[in-house]
């Protein structure tokens, strides 16, 4: 939860911090227990340095890594793990989160809907990825 909160606050400076603190209980008690989650651990002390969580075998609800490992391939490895288990994959990303949008585009995700997040009212995109071996 600490990784989620720190990463969420860093990735979404355009959203008031209180929104995330208020959302923490729902994430901890509802979202994470229902999701399939893979974690990446650091080599030295085995601390969690990143995770990806997938709901309903298709919706990526969270992909976060600690800032110290940005650019090291941890997020790509977590995404590859999710892709190896599920196709198609969907996610919702804030349009203002340019770093995440660029990452998802590099990972082969395309925008399929232009919408607004119900909790914040901010513009989001729903993005989708499908395995190349999966028939249309």
Shape estimate: globular
| Overall pLDDT confidence | 89
Strand order of the largest sheet: 1-2-3-4-6-5
CATH architecture descriptor text: 3-Layer(aba) Sandwich
CATH topology: Aminopeptidase
Query: Treating each run of at least 4 consecutive H or I residues as one helix, how many helices?
Result: 4
Considering the protein shown, what is the CATH homologous superfamily?
Answer: Gcn5-related N-acetyltransferase (GNAT)
The share of residues in helices is 25-40%
What letter string, H or E per element, gives the SSE order?
A: HHEEEHEHEE
Radius of gyration: 15 Å
* Unreliable residue stretches: none
Structural class: alpha+beta
The percent range for strand residues is 25-35%
- How many separate structural domains? 1
Largest sheet, in brief, is:
6 strands, mixed
What key attributes describe this structure?
4 helices; 6-stranded mixed beta sheet; 136 residues
